[in-house]
């Protein structure tokens, strides 16, 4: 009797995808038309190019990062999407260095996060290339959660630009 290779059951692998797809469909159905119809496109267009680039790159990191987390790791899609995500994340961090205003004409505390991302992002890439999966997972998860989700959530506070773009 030969040993059978271990495998991930298709149902467990697909459960996350189904859950995310269901959440995306429900969110789009419930909020999509209202949110998209309330986005102030004129206000977005009136922003400096660096702010527009920053917003689009940041939204890309959230969307693509969520997709990467929901997919199987180590495959061609993961590597390709990962490189795109790294470019988007670096673009978000670098562009933020040219955006001031919370602290007059100087950088604010949030810019420390941008500096940290620019330091830790190459470490995450290096870890992936050296097959240090544990280091890669921790660095990229930390950047995604802290740099995209948590920092992104703070941009939706009342009075901030993202609040004004979406909620008026």
Can you walk me through this structure?
The chain is mainly α. Mean pLDDT is 82; it is low at 6-11. The protein has one domain. The chain has helices at 10-38, 41-46, 49-70, 76-96, 110-129, 133-154, 161-167. Helices cover 76% and strands 0% of the residues.
**Mean pLDDT value:** 82
Structural class: mainly alpha
Low-confidence sequence ranges: 6-11
Strand content: under 5%
Tally the helices: what do you get? 7
**Cα distance spanning the termini:** 68 Å
How many strands in all? Answer: 0
Major beta-sheet overview: none
Number of domains as seen in the coordinates? 1
Query: What percent of the residues sit in helical stretches (DSSP H or I)?
Result: over 70%
Q: Please state the CA-atom Rg, rounded to the nearest Å.
A: 19 Å
Secondary-structure element pattern, one letter each? HHHHHHH
Shape summary: globular
What is shown here, in short?
The protein is an all-alpha fold. It has one domain. The chain has helices at 10-38, 41-46, 49-70, 76-96, 110-129, 133-154, 161-167.
What is the element layout, followed by pairings?
Elements: H1 10-38, H2 41-46, H3 49-70, H4 76-96, H5 110-129, H6 133-154, H7 161-167
What are the key terms here?
76% helix; single chain; 7 helices
